[in-house]
Write a structure and sequence with these properties.
The chain is an alpha/beta fold. The protein is 12% helix and 30% strand.
Length: 330
Amino acid sequence: MMTRTVRPLVSLLVPLALALSGCGEEGAGPDAPEAEESEDVQPAEVEVGEFVDGAQPGDVVEVEDGITVRVPEPGNLVAVEVMYEDGNTAVATLVNDTDRGVFLLHPDEHLLGPPEGTAAACATKCDDTSYSHVFANQGVRAKWKSRLEWSYRHTNSPIGKSNAIDAFKHAAVAIPKQRNSCSMSDESSATQRYLGETSRKPNITKSGSQINCEAPDGHNVIGWGAIAGGTLAVTCTYASSDGTNTYRIVEADQRYDTSNQNWYAGNAVPNNCNNRYSLRGVATHEFGHAYGLGHTPAQCNQVMAPSTSDCTSRNRKLGRGDVRGVRNLY
C-alpha cells in the first residue's frame, strides 16, 4: 500500500480559480496506442476534505472504496462519478492546487435518492427548478469552452451497434439541445460532434474490483467493459483552470458495464421489464456530468438526480431544473 500523510482541509473560502494556474491544451494529435487495463497499483487512501501530502502527478489515490484517480498536473483536477445498480451514485473530485497541494473533495457530499416511499413528496419534473454544477461548492464551475467531440468504441457492447450509437447520440444531444419534457426552448451555447467509431478505449480501467480514472489523453471516448459488480456506468471528467472562475473541461470519458447489466436502447420500456436499464437515460445523466452538471439538490425526477431505477425511461429527457442548469452554465 502506498502511504501518504494526510491532514484536514482548511480555509477554502478563496475560489480555487484564484489559486490554480496553468491551462493544458486539449489533446489533438493522432491516436495513440490503446491503453491497457490498469496494473494493480496500490493507492494512497484519504478521507473527504483531506490534503494528500507528498502526492505527485501520476500517483494513484483512492477517492472512494474501490475508486481511484491519478493525481493530475498542477492547476488541474479530475472528477469521477459512478452510478450503481441500486440507483445510488458516488462523486469525488481530486484537485492539484498549484499553491496548496493535492486534496480531495466530494461536491455533493454523497447525495442519495429519496428514501423509499417519499417519491410523492418530490416536485414534478417540470416544477422542480433545482440544479447544481460539478464544482460549484468550491466557488468555481466547469464547462466546455470548445465543442465536445467524442468517439465510440463498440467492442464488448451487449447491444447492437446501430441501436447503441443511436442511444449515445440521443444522450450527447439531449444536454446541449435541452431536449426536455417541459416544452422549454433551446437557449444553450453548448455544442457537440460525434466523430465516429474508434479502436481507442475509454480512459477508464479496471483492476480486480477497482475502478480507475487514468491520466487524461486528450480523447473523449465512450465504450464498454466489465466494471465492479453492481456498477452501471463511470464518467471521468478532467478540467483545467484558465484564470477565471469557470474551469475549462478538456476531456470526459465514459465506460458502461457489460458484466451483469441488461440494457435496452429504445425509448420505450420493454414489456415484462425486470432489472433492465435504459441506456438512453443513464447515458443522458452521464453526459450531464461530462458537460459540467452536478447532481440536483432535490434528489428526484430530474435527469441529474443522484439516483436512478430499473425499467424507467424518464431520464432520457431533461426536467426544468436540468434545463436551468444547462442555461446557467452555457
